[in-house]
Amino acid sequence: MNYGRTLQRLRKLKGVSQLEVAEHINVSRTTYVNLEKGMGELTLSKIITLAEYYKVNINYFINIILNTDNYTDCLPTKNQEFCDIKNMLEEILLKIHDLNEVNK
């Protein structure tokens, strides 16, 4: 599933406008609209803020992001920031997995 469609679905379920979400994550409405279109800069801090705002587990967003086409095309000249986030999230998931294994 595209992360933009997920953001749109969550927003509609919460019954808020794009402007309300944009103000909450401290971006312009245009920037948020682009996020809902699956474009724009989705930083780790925005992912965390959105997860808290929509009251969903951060892993929910991470899994969607890791399975989004924008994040799988990691050419050096295209989507570099997305690729950096993807790599960072994959490292975080590996560390969580390792911690879960140690605690078993």
UniProtKB/TrEMBL annotation:
<dbReference type="InterPro" id="IPR001387">
    <property type="entry name" value="Cro/C1-type_HTH"/>
</dbReference>
<protein>
    <recommendedName>
        <fullName>HTH cro/C1-type domain-containing protein</fullName>
    </recommendedName>
</protein>
<keyword id="KW-0238">DNA-binding</keyword>
<dbReference type="GO" id="GO:0003677">
    <property type="term" value="F:DNA binding"/>
</dbReference>
<dbReference type="InterPro" id="IPR010982">
    <property type="entry name" value="Lambda_DNA-bd_dom_sf"/>
</dbReference>
<feature type="domain" description="HTH cro/C1-type">
    <location>
        <begin position="7"/>
        <end position="61"/>
    </location>
</feature>
<dbReference type="Pfam" id="PF01381">
    <property type="entry name" value="HTH_3"/>
</dbReference>
